[in-house]
């Protein structure tokens, strides 16, 4: 009986702790904005803002206000963040374990930054960091953690696991020079793929999701899996949203799988249009309730912002034309009988230029299929030479055209609200996909790889 009572008491204490919210107090001594997780907070000078997190036992969050802080917060924690007039950020040391832990994390993050400097701009390194390399940095991190846990043993429960995971995957990322944001179409070494493979068994422990380096590798591995799909878990390419959920099944049931499914849908939320909303909503409902609620709120906000905008083209057989670098006029109708990937872009558009390497690699993978890759630049006549120079310097393949008609008519025809804008036209000239996520997401490749060979 005593054992039963003891278990009941322990369970109640655990539930009580789990139910305690995390509170972050933002104190603005200057006008500032703070990025915390997915949210942005605009603060006036003298303003105090409270952020409350509820429903989870622990949280890993990024906070940015002139500098980036990686925070680890557990149920019941209270952290005060002061934004000073001199632009410095302070995590108020009130003697709590929460403040101590997160100030220690700032020290860890600083060492990682110093290692980056040693690789890129060593001349800016302070003298005490001269000769810094990955081995030395990792040794220091492990010594610091051992010393910290000896002084604060209460953090062995969860924080130690998160940090051991962080150091493991931070090293893997650095050893394999994995620094790019998206891994779509990337070719990885055997060592890198072996590191990716460890992500799956490590996902058995829900706490690993709070390690930034672990999660960074997960996102890159998902990019790789989206294209390669070694176990064939995905369905037909046109089942975009459903496939994003299926990708998460490479990982065992638990927080990591749930987070992947949520993140995959969240990443392509911007491109959801009324004609595909029903399919997207079905996938959102398959998420755990706490994720579904977040996405539903984002969808409602997006719908409200777009309520007066035209999102679905009226004419599904667009009539477009442009000039080649040699000044020759080309009509889109001349490509009837083949599939067309249309990329509307401009030389002055940063995101457009970021898509070019991915577009080049996708064209190589799909070579020989019944597809024409048509890039339609909306650069003005005054920038024609700039457009020609970029096409040649970046060795852009496919059909390169510059719009000679009115940009407003093009925007109206395809319901373009921003570039890059990707669309797929079938062999009959019908617009079958419009406003797709960038090629770098891998979704367009999944659709076009099903097109037969010429």
What is the strand tally? 15
Profile the largest sheet.
7 strands, mixed
Average predicted confidence as pLDDT: 91
Quaternary organisation of the protein chains: single chain
What structural class results from the helix and strand content?
A: alpha+beta
Helix content: 40-55%
Cα distance spanning the termini:
77 Å
Counting H and I runs of at least 4 residues, what is the number of helices? 14
| SSE pattern | HEEEEEEEEHHHHHHHHHEEEHEHEHEEH
Give the spatial strand order of the biggest sheet: 10-9-13-12-11-14-15
Beta-strand proportion? 15-25%
Keywords: Cytochrome c-type biogenesis, Disulfide bond, Redox-active center, Signal
Pfam family, one: AhpC-TSA
Main location: other
InterPro entries: AhpC/TSA, Thioredoxin-like_sf, Thioredoxin_CS, Thioredoxin_domain, Thioredoxin_ResA/DsbE_sf
Can you characterise this structure?
The chain starts with a helix and ends in a 6-residue tail after the last helix. The protein has helices at 2-19, 97-120, 134-151, 159-175, 190-202, 212-228, 240-247, 255-267, 277-285, 289-305, 350-365, 384-393, 407-414, 443-448, and strands at residues 22-28, 32-36, 39-43, 48-53, 58-64, 68-74, 78-83, 89-91, 321-323, 329-331, 339-345, 371-377, 399-403, 421-425, 431-436. The chain has 14 helices and 15 strands. It has three domains: 18-126, Sandwich (Immunoglobulin-like), CATH 2.60.40; 158-308, no CATH class; 321-448, 3-Layer(aba) Sandwich (Glutaredoxin), CATH 3.40.30. The model is unreliable at 2-17 (pLDDT under 50). The strands form three sheets. It has a seven-stranded mixed β-sheet with strand order 10-9-13-12-11-14-15. Strands 4-1-7-8 form a four-stranded mixed β-sheet. It has a four-stranded antiparallel β-sheet with strand order 3-2-5-6. With 454 residues, the protein is α+β, with helices and mostly antiparallel strands. α7 (240-247) runs antiparallel to α8. It is globular, with a radius of gyration of 25 Å. Residues 311-453 form the Thioredoxin domain. Pfam families: AhpC-TSA.
């Amino acid at each position: 009986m005593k054992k039963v009572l003891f278990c009941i008491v322990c369970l109640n204490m655990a539930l009580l702790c789990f139910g305690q919210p995390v509170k972050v107090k933002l104190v603005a001594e200057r006008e500032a904005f703070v990025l915390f997780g997915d949210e942005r907070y605009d603060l006036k000078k003298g303003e105090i803002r409270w952020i409350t997190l509820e429903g989870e036992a622990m949280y890993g969050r990024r906070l940015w206000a002139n500098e980036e802080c990686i925070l680890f917060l557990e149920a019941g924690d209270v952290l005060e963040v002061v934004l000073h007039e001199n632009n410095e950020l302070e995590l108020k040391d009130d003697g709590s374990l929460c403040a101590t832990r997160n100030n220690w994390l700032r020290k860890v993050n600083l060492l990682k930054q110093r290692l980056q400097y040693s690789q890129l701009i060593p001349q800016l390194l302070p003298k005490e960091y001269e000769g810094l390399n990955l081995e030395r940095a990792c040794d220091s991190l492990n010594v610091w953690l051992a010393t910290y846990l000896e002084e604060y043993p209460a953090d062995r429960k969860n924080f130690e696991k998160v940090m051991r995971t962080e150091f493991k995957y931070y090293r893997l990322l650095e050893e394999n020079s994995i620094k790019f944001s998206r891994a779509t179409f990337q070719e990885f070494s055997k060592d890198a793929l072996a590191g990716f493979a460890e992500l799956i068994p490590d996902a058995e422990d829900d706490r690993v999701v709070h390690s930034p380096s672990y999660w960074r590798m997960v996102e890159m591995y998902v990019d790789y899996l989206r294209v390669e799909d070694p176990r064939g878990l995905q369905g037909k390419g046109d089942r975009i949203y459903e496939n994003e959920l299926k990708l998460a099944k490479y990982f065992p049931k638990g927080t990591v799988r749930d987070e992947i499914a949520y993140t995959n849908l969240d990443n392509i939320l911007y491109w959801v249009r009324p004609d595909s909303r029903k399919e997207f909503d079905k996938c959102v409902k398959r998420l755990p309730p706490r994720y579904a609620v977040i996405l539903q709120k984002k969808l409602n906000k997006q719908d409200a912002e777009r309520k007066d905008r035209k999102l679905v083209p009226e004419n599904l057989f667009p009539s477009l034309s442009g000039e080649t670098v040699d000044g020759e006029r080309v009509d889109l109708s001349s490509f009837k009988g083949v599939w067309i990937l249309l990329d509307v872009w401009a030389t002055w558009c940063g995101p457009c230029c970021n898509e070019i390497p991915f577009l080049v690699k996708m064209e190589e993978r799909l070579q020989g299929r019944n597809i024409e890759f048509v890039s339609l630049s909306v650069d003005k006549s005054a920038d024609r030479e700039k457009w020609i120079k970029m096409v040649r310097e970046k060795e852009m393949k496919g059909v390169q055209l510059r719009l000679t008609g009115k940009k407003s008519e093009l925007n109206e025809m395809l319901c373009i609200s921003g570039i890059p804008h990707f669309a797929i036209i079938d062999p009959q000239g019908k617009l079958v996909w419009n406003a797709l996520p960038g090629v770098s997401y891998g979704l367009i490749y999944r659709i076009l790889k099903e097109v037969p060979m010429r």
